[in-house]
Design goal:
The structure is a homodimer of 214-residue chains. Chain A contains 10 helices and 8 strands. With 214 residues, chain A is of the alpha/beta class. The first copy, chain A, is elongated and about 75 Å long. The first copy, chain A, starts with a strand and ends with a helix. At the A-B interface, helix 4, strand 8, helix 6 and helix 10 of A face helix 4, strand 8, helix 6 and helix 11 of B. Chain A binds a DNA duplex (30 and 30 nucleotides) through helix 9.
DNA sequence: TCGACCATCGGGACTTACCCTGATGGCACC
DNA sequence: GGTGCCATCAGGGTAAGTCCCGATGGTCGA
């Protein structure tokens, strides 16, 4: 049996979801806790340690992200499925970022909801069809691109120095870390700026940030 | 019926997958094309325009990413489900980044594979349980956090100067752009560093880069 | 063996960043 | 009508970055 906690500020919604989860045929889902606020939810989850938490995104005293943060802080490892009327990108991203393994809208049908709970319980990722697209878009858009042609012009040592420069280390620090003199660091830094056609380490920091080399 | 193209360099694997997809009960899947190389795959997909492409990650003359790039370039909008023996993070991320909507390993069972194809066809995201975790981890780690509490401590003007500092502009440049004196820029910069507890503009650049404020 | 490239240093000069103290006027809140 | 916060600016100082000039030794390939 999959033990589920139900978090939603409307008792009616909770009742509806509970019905769908428990009364469908061959259901292996059991609702072991319910709550309507962030505070109550954290309490209930910590106490009952469910396998899966089905959680509304917007609650009277906070969001699903607050609930997740609260229970993670207390060492609970339940998996979270966010359930919301909202399909706004910011809501979705915020909750996913907090650690939810799935996000479905309330337009979902009963059997699909049971299925979603099962999949989340298995560690799988579940999204409503409409959401899958831009979640993956956001995902792929935020990964570093592998090829940086200008970077090949730098020698190995120069790249090493470049990375430390981009991270904001002072020459003195870089010299210490690489066990070389400040003057050598200056030489490499100079070569880096010249080859990348930049005029200061500050432009270099921006350059590196754009290419996600930090 | 869901029209599917099957890309894998081993005919035996293709036969096995085809069997699983077409011969399971109530199957609504139809294999309309097959190929074993990147070149053949692009040809076959462009010709048959399947709903879903089930594609091995490693092919003799390239990868699934190459196939996706090739057909997208030709205006085909089929959805891709990557199928591989590999569960290496780099493989997964590379393929997802190219636009695949799902990634499952070959350890998947027949009915689950049919289900995965259906879900991808619906625009949903599908991952093998083991993969869902770190795909989402990579995803969330690469999204900007909406709330930057320390940022609220900065006044509007200080934030403005901070952004320009992070972009690598010299004080002189910032002064010119904001039509104020260098000394004023220094004041704001000083306040920014103090409030963010940073010791130099170079650390600030790294700080801003991490929070994607550039 | 010689030349090309690289990593390693040094001296010196100039510019820039950063900090400190202190000042002015504007604006809002009580 | 203070009191505080903000934006604006100044002088003067230390530290750091940037760029010149140069030098040495190592490796690798023609």
């Amino acid at each position: 049996m999959i033990r589920v906690a139900l978090i939603d500020d409307h008792a009616l919604v909770r009742a509806g979801v509970r019905g769908e989860l428990e009364e469908s045929e061959n259901s292996d889902v059991e609702v072991v806790a319910e709550a309507g606020t962030v505070a109550d939810a954290i309490d209930a989850i910590v106490r009952s340690k469910p396998d899966v938490v089905v959680c509304d995104v917007h609650l009277p005293d906070g969001t699903a992200a607050d609930v997740i943060a609260g229970v993670v802080e207390r060492g609970v490892t339940s998996r979270f499925l966010a359930l919301s009327v909202s399909d706004a990108a910011t809501d979705v991203i915020h909750v996913i970022r907090s650690g939810a393994r799935g996000y479905v809208t309330k337009a979902i049908e009963g059997p699909d909801l049971v299925n979603a709970v099962r999949r989340v319980n298995d560690g799988d990722a579940v999204f409503s069809p409409r959401l899958a697209g831009f979640v993956l878009d956001a995902f792929s858009a935020n990964l570093e691109s592998p090829g940086n042609p200008e970077l090949d012009e730098l020698t190995a040592r120069e790249q090493e120095v470049m990375r430390l420069l981009a991270r904001g280390y002072a020459y003195k620090e870089i010299a210490r870390r690489l066990s070389i003199s400040i003057k050598t660091v200056e030489s490499h830094a100079s070569a880096v700026l010249r080859k990348l056609q930049l005029s200061s380490r500050n432009e270099l920091a921006a350059w590196a940030a754009n290419r996600k080399l930090v």
